[in-house]
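Recap for those who missed Tuesday's class. We walked through two folding examples back to back. For each one, the amino acid string is listed first and its predicted structure tokens come directly after. Nothing is annotated here on purpose, so try labeling regions yourself before you check the end of the notes.
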Amino acid sequence: MAYTVWLPRGDLLPRTLTGLVAIPAVVFIIFQGQFFLKIIGVLAAFGLLREWSNLSFSKPYHWLSFVCFSSILFGFFPALRVGALLMTLAGCGWFLYLKVFKSEELKVICFGYLYITSAMAIIIHIMPNFGVNFALLVLTLVWSVDTGAFLAGKTFGGPKLAPAISPNKTWSGFVGGIIFGLGSVILLTRVMNIEVSESFWAFAGVSVFLAQGGDLLESWCKRFFKVKDSGNFLPGHGGMLDRLDSLLAVSFAIAVLWYFCGNANAHVLS
């Protein structure tokens, strides 16, 4: 079987250097505890909503972004969470009522705001409840799926996964992402001696598919708005949406896991 040997060049060098700096920094913050994990989540939410506003309206700030961001902040107060959800829905509903854009554009824009807001609310208010080790496992899975898909796709190439959405993604990258994602999580549990339950492995098995689905969804959105990258926040990686698209999708699996497991640490990690 023929394969391609590649060397760091083009976007790969800044992509690698950014990863070498950003990943250890995020891991360090995670180990500082839930408070710091929530803070970095809030900052990420602000950046994501800002980028979505820029994609949608060609400007980084829009009143609907602030409505969504405010609803995420209100989530820190349990008594206000239902109101925060209603506020977000009302904001999107009012935007639809204004009919500033064509119907299809309005639906995509409002879906993006609801999607990002819901996902980041889960990441900020639910994921930290599982503990530091769980957050580290989730991020390792997401990073590894992305890296495995990139490396396998570059090395083996082959048939396109979804050429109408993302011409560069291949089936070899899809399989590589699954293998690399699950393999990295298995390795980390062994190295750090983390005991996980069957529920976690079911979650991980679903998440390797969701992560790649989130990547495709973000690619479709960029194609819809006719842009290459969601931003230029990270050299070689693009914007925050480009880097967190997989995590946003996986967040909904986290919510389902929390719903069914209740006391997370007792049923997921031991």
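Example two. Treat it independently of the first, because the proteins are unrelated.
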Amino acid sequence: MKKVAIVFVLIIIGIQFFSVNKTNPPVNEGLDAPPEIKGIFKRACYDCHSNETNWPWYASVAPVSWLVADDVEEGRKHLNFSEWGNLTRKKIAHTKEEIWDEVKNDDMPLWQYSLIHSKARLSQKDKELIREWTGQGEAE
């Protein structure tokens, strides 16, 4: 049992040398939205869906760092508010529909993110403001 514990500790120490890319590229054409909408998104979405990620301390500790970096990479790939101004009108309309679908179905923000970041949880008022901004139908 002691050998297993020693091997486990050595593995944990060893994986710390495999760092992840924790960069914030420049903001090209950021989101142009009313302040209350931008505030909601900054609080609940920007860490994964912008180039303005606030990298928490645990994003430097493997293996959690790998998960965080992957979530940010995937999040930016699907929606990057820092690139919003580069989208066509058609793409913006489609993206707003997707945003509302994710929010309406409580798929975003991710439950595990909201668990650690309580300020990211969306209130009914937040959801209603997002629904109005996206131009979607009534809340369900």
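Answers for example two:
The longest helix spans residues 89-104.
Residues 2-134 form one domain.
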